[in-house]
Amino acid sequence: MKSRTNMRLCATGAALGIIATLGALPAQADPLSSAIPHNPSSHATLPLPLGPGDLPETRTTTTLQPGVTLTRIVRGNADDPALHWTVEVSIPGGDTSPDPDAPPTALKDRASADELATDLWQKGFEARVEQVRTSRTADYTGGTLGWRVRIGTYDAQSAATAERARLTAAGYRGSAVYTGWDGEATDRGPWRVDVLTIDPRRFRGSLDASYGPDLEARETTSRLSAAADATAAVNAGFFVLDPKAGAPGDPTGVGVYDGRLLSEPVAGRPSLVLNDNARGTRVARFTWRGRVTGATASLRLNGVNRVPGLIRNCGGTKGDIPTSLPLHDVTCTNPNDLVAFTPDYAGGRTPGGEGLEAVLDAHDRVVELRSPRGGTLPPGGSSLQATGRRVADLTAVAHVGDRLRVKTTLLDARGHEYRPSPRTDIVNAGPELVRDGRIHITPAADGMVHPDDPSWYYGWAHKRNPRTLAGVDTAGRTVLVTADGRGTRSLGLSIAESAAVARSLGLRDAVNLDGGGSTTMVTDDTVINTPSDATGERPVGDALLILPREHGH
Description:
By secondary structure, this protein is mainly beta. The chain is 11% helix and 36% strand. It is globular, with a radius of gyration of 24 Å.
């Protein structure tokens, strides 16, 4: 049974039938302002801190099942005369990633930007140079990121696309962009945000994370939702997209499903911890340790259920190249790797390549040593794959007929063991957005600041994009949020705006999940937002599901 409530928030702050008055925000809302009172029910009372305070805002709330509501928030004006289309020039060779969410290389130092603009003017393009400054965060000083070069001002995307084609013909690269994606506080929108709220006091279903039938394969959020007969779902953690970076669909960070660690953490990056009953949702940072123990020796593991030698988002172990620290959307490498595999990976078929693989049966006994590595696992079995110098390590421990004990352990931020229950799921995330009710954005610690590539931060964090956010409010309710973007009907959110929105919705702790083309929300087997990929809904690594029944019933 669904019930629906509609309200409209306007400049005077009236909310018809629901709220008597609602104070307006300052004329130019600062997304990092601390002036917004922290209120656990504020997603029903406060306007979003986006754009000027006089913008119209409408909200529609629907009860999906006991303890679960969906609120659609639409804020701003459909036609902002200050916004237009333009062509942003890319640095040659900078836009080569196969990841559709990878930002092009668009920023230069001032002298280089001026030189490029002068060259473009000489070839008949009306180029201009614009300084890009970004906000300070909890662990990043912000300031000037660089200078961008843009060409023209157009009312229609088609005109910008035509100018881009002319630019390409002249030997340059660029993209047609809408200035509403730049993240200016004076922009008048529009924005479209969907909010799922799960109240554990009334919720009698199950809150789960699912990767589908195969950890390695990708599935759309709507397919994962339909397969579980879920009431609602959103996309979840980051995952491998490019086969050159690992196995597509594999989580690129911690992945715990029904209490089992199936993907190792990225060096202390944040994650979202969920329990089936929707109680105790929290944002937490984990590291891990893993060991394989035989009759005469014990070895340190480097990974779980990933292609040996490839560490997406980095944050692995000493010896990884270029770093053992987190570095988002970068694939670190290490020729000397020891990785454990469970039957959840690729339907029980492990990746092939040079090295050695010890195959274990369901009783942890070595039944086969194979080189090259790769192949099927016995029913209920597992394996260990070694490359480079780790081959000698594994050879010394693994003998056919021997029993090997593989143990993986999560460690919390204090270094203490954390043992998830079979009713606990953990998905990878980052950066943090809100901590203890205060905006706390951590892009540097979480690998979103690329020291030698300011264009990456500009495109991924500074500019507006589709976003998926999650967290918990002071009443203990789990809140899942999607914001559409990369369009003119919804501008999206910068990371700073994401934090401000999360806090205005009353979240005590919040974190950013995978966004961009992955951002998807599903209710009743229908995608209710507008995914930004040109091909439609993107297959993802995992999703968060709200089920109408308790897990396993």
